[in-house]
């Protein structure tokens, strides 16, 4: 596993060990880093190439991918800027490592920035797994996501993401043409074994 810093984000890259699997872009939650989701990736997509950047925004010393004004209230101007910045990094990394467009696997804050990239720079991603995602932009631009696969996994008792907010995100992405599967699990904001099982099955059929 090599840690590379010469691109625009501190990140880790792990080359594929199996052909035919899409590369994964791993996007951590608040307070995570570029190592956070690597163990998860072995369970959901063994053999895939992995690209795992560290969020550049610090909130009380904890890395995030964009600023928020308070819990559940995002600085949407910053969301837009950071989504563009992340899409530029994906393009750099694809060139540097010879990757096809990755499937984002994001948790919480990482899922929210992945959803924003889908809405602002759809060509950057081949698809996305959004674990505990919320609507990142209240007024997203019209975008064509025709046929792009998206899995949204929500927790029925998540204290941070209201169920109707997650449903609205699914509806927005479906309305833009994405092929969305929205799964509600009997869990909270943290990830469970069921998340891994659902995600692995979804990635396996891509």
TrEMBL record:
Q: Which residues form the Peptidase S33 tripeptidyl aminopeptidase-like C-terminal domain?
A: 140-192
Q: What positions does the domain AB hydrolase-1 occupy? A: 85-137
Any coiled-coil regions, as ranges: none
Q: What InterPro entries is this protein classified in? A: AB_hydrolase_1 (IPR000073), AB_hydrolase_fold (IPR029058), LYPA1-2/EST-like (IPR050565), Pept_S33_TAP-like_C (IPR013595)
Question: Per its UniProt record, what Pfam families does this chain match?
Answer: Abhydrolase_1 (PF00561), Abhydrolase_4 (PF08386)
Check the UniProt entry and state the signal peptide residues, or none. Answer: none
Q: What is this protein called?
A: Phospholipase/carboxylesterase
The protein's organism comes out as Microvirga subterranea
